[in-house]
Amino acid sequence: MSAKYFIDTNVFVYSFDAQAPEKKARSMRLIQEGLTTGLGIISTQVIQEFLNVATQKFVTPMEIEHSKLYLRQVLNPLCHVYPDLALYESCLEIQAKTRYSFYDSLILASALKGDCSVLYSEDLQDGQEVRGVKIINPYQ
Hints:
- By secondary structure, the protein is α/β, with parallel strands linked by helices.
- Helix content is about 55%, strand content about 15%.
- The chain has helices at about 10-15, 20-35, 45-55, 65-80, 85-100, 100-115; strands spanning about 5, 40-45, 80, 120, 130, 135.
- It is globular, with a radius of gyration of 14 Å.
- The chain starts with a strand and ends with a strand.
């Protein structure tokens, strides 16, 4: 990979899913490549969603100290997109055009703000391009 890419929350969730070993392995590769190359990015929304799932909804919830360590070592280094007025305005425009939910549109707006050419997510339409960001389901 040589272009910036945005990693959606589900990729982080699958990186801990022992019940889906292929998705887990693919997720771990995307995250590690993002950290190693500096090309993978996330937004504060991804941090919030992941920590909520990890500490509340995992079969064995992530302990607070482990969550803080993961936040410092993985999530924070990848976080390059922070909310501002322009992000929310872009989100609303994307939502109106695509009819995606507010939060899915916010992920797309964050990928745009981060100058990404690809958004890795299984939650949106694989292959669709929105304002120059191509949505790719990394598990297909």
